[in-house]
Amino acid sequence: xxxxxxxxxxxxxxxxxxxxxxxxxxxxxxxxxxxxxxxxxxxxxxxxxxxxxxxxxxxxxxxxxxxxxxxxxxxxxxxxxxxxxxxxxxxxxxxxxxxxxxxxxxxxxxxxxxxxxxxxxxxxxxxxxxxxxxxxxxxxxxxxxxxxxxxxxxxxxxxxxxxxxxxxxxxxxxxxxxxxxxxxxxxxxxxxxxxxxxxxxxxxxxxxxxxxxxxxxxxxxxxxxxxxxxxxxxxxxxxxxxxxxxxxxxxxxxxxxxxxxxxxxxxxxxxxxxxxxxxxxxxxxxxxxxxxxxxxxxxxxxxxxxxxxxxxxxxxxxxxxxxxxxxxxxxxxxxxxxxxxxxxxxxxxxxxxxxxxxxxxxxxxxxxxxxxxxxxxxxxxxxxxxxxxxxxxxxxxxxxxxxxxxxxxxxxxxxxxxxxxxxxxxxxxxxxxxxxxxxxxxxxxxxxxxxxxxxxxxxxxxxxxxxxxxxxxxxxxxxxxxxxxxxx
Length: 488
Ligand code: GLN
Hints:
Layout: H1 3-11, H2 17-35, E1 38-41, H3 43-56, E2 72-76, H4 103-110, E3 114-119, H5 153-160, E4 166-171, H6 177-183, E5 186-189, E6 209-214, H7 217-227, E7 257-261, H8 271-286, E8 290-294, H9 302-317, H10 336-347, H11 350-363, H12 368-392, E9 395-399, H13 415-419, H14 426-431, E10 435-442, E11 448-455, H15 460-473, H16 481-484
Parallel strand pairs: 2-3, 2-4, 7-8, 7-9
Antiparallel strand pairs: 1-3, 4-6, 5-6, 5-10, 9-11, 10-11
Helix pairs in contact: 2-3, 7-15, 9-11, 9-12
Bound molecules: glutamine.
């Protein structure tokens, strides 16, 4: 089920908006016990919207008006959809129902999409396995003993399990690309400033971007084309023209220069991941790309820099959850101070508390210069590294993650091991550049592996074109176990 074949079926009169939406909702409900991808399924709202779409008809008589007409979409629970919950995977926002739509949601709606529900995620998008959600784990449809990745695990699974063709997530350090890789789907983090953050609940404001999941590159290009562009509600969105990403997909990649980053094929890389990503490098060579080996010397500091900057920004962003303005409030507190303290103590989970403490520490007087300022300086050097490489290359190619999906519980007692999952993805957020993960094969155990492409600022189009060429030559047709066994 892709946007293209939904629209072909609509145009041929073989289906209706109502049937498409009903089928997505029914699958979401049927699989939720096994996979836990959704925190809220909006059967009623989605059906109502489908009726509206059917009644509105189409302007041009094709049966399809609006590039996302009747396309069911799943939305991460840290993105505001009017009338639905936005828990962010946290008890502290548990019952919060935002009175407004995020800009990305407004734009999807205007293009004809139908939100079918809100997806599970790590609390405040902090995590790489979805195990930090206050509302239960999400399971990987390829092997339900394994994690789907995080923090946008629910959205990745909703697409991987073919519940919806496309979904929204957010990527602060890899939270779209990493779960996309672990679940065998396409995931895109746009350039910082490409997509409005209005209505995205903040984690690390200088790093956060809304991103998209899909089963193929074309659908990701359609989705980004809809949600991208300047928004007066978010001053960090840039007034840079949004190209027609779909029209650019078929361009020639002959002569494209792809940099293979040596540091990212070093120690700690799983043998199967190495093999599949190397094979993808060869595939690009056969497609006519020129492969150049490059170095990214500051990449080795990226994890340390990211976990200073992201936690500093998080500690500041999360100060607003005090029991007064939103969501949960601890009961039975004798004083105002006690109410604040107990609300935060009971409302936040362990990982969020760890990050608030770390972030507050690196910003505190006396340590600010040693940690936060230093991290910002290294961030500039890393940006400079990328700028230099993009003078010689059109894109960089790396593995998306060091290993395929790991077992539930495997890394929960070791935050550092968990943080290392992001080693190949955080660099893009620190530099503000776009990144895309596309499936490039299976491990010996039958788990998906992703390859990551990184590009120049505002140049998602090149990533789409390169990923599309690869996908055409090496289609990823395997289906996750949950579906292959007919469980759906
Ligand atoms: N896994 C990373 C973290 O825990 C990235 C999270 C994200 O991109 N939202 O911070």
